[in-house]
Amino acid sequence: MKGQEWYQADDVAQEYDDKRFSRGGQLIDRREKEAVLDAIVPVEGKNVLEIACGTGRFTVMLAERGADVVGLDISAAMLQQGRQKVQDADLAGTLEFLRGDAGRLPFPDDHFDIVIAMRFFHLADDPEAFLREMRRVSSEQIVFDTFNRFSARSVYNWALPMGSRLYSKSEVATLLAKTDLTLVDVEDDFLAPYGLYRSIPNALAEPIRNLDTAIGGHPITDHFASVSYWNTRVRSPASN
């Protein structure tokens, strides 16, 4: 995985949410959570694994809505931030944080109903291997996002602390075919890249986001979106 040492540093974990999801970044947080909920609701009673759960943004949200969630991450510092969030949360389901490697998941086959991985595949050095492992432990559904090659993100990707793996739609389609996953839906968003929203106040980010949403709602501009949210289903043996 790219940037493992950077990601696991204590100071990175302590500042992670504030740097990425404050100011205009609140719009990113809201949109990502919306994408996850759109894909998997209703979540009550579902058994969910989140890969690379970080500080627990999605794990806590899903547990609050009645899911039984395991959040797995390689960073002990990130997991500690997640555990602190739980202290203030009103959970209807259950939530457990585990430190582990996404390439060797410590769970039996088909153990979870749903596996999600947000902000993960841009760091993957072998995305097919990771997706196969996610497929192994999921009995129903896998939801993930990718950063897109033909987008504004490609302009500044080189300047990021650990860079990003950028994907074309055809590359993801090939990954899904190789791992026996069926595409249910894909949502494309954010013509303006995440980095812009994180760097400006919310009052300025809101009108930019409104314009972004209006322009990005057309089929032609969708091709230049910075991020795609993928909703996939595990193929049943009868469909193979």
TrEMBL record:
Pfam families: Methyltransf_11. Keywords: Methyltransferase, Transferase. It is an enzyme of class 2 (transferase). Signal peptide: none annotated. GO terms for molecular function: methyltransferase activity. This is Class I SAM-dependent methyltransferase. GO terms for biological process: methylation. The keyword Endoplasmic reticulum does not apply. Gene3D superfamilies: Vaccinia Virus protein VP39 (3.40.50.150). It comes from the Archaea. Residues 49-137 form the Methyltransferase type domain. It comes from Halosolutus amylolyticus. Its EC number is 2.1.1.-.
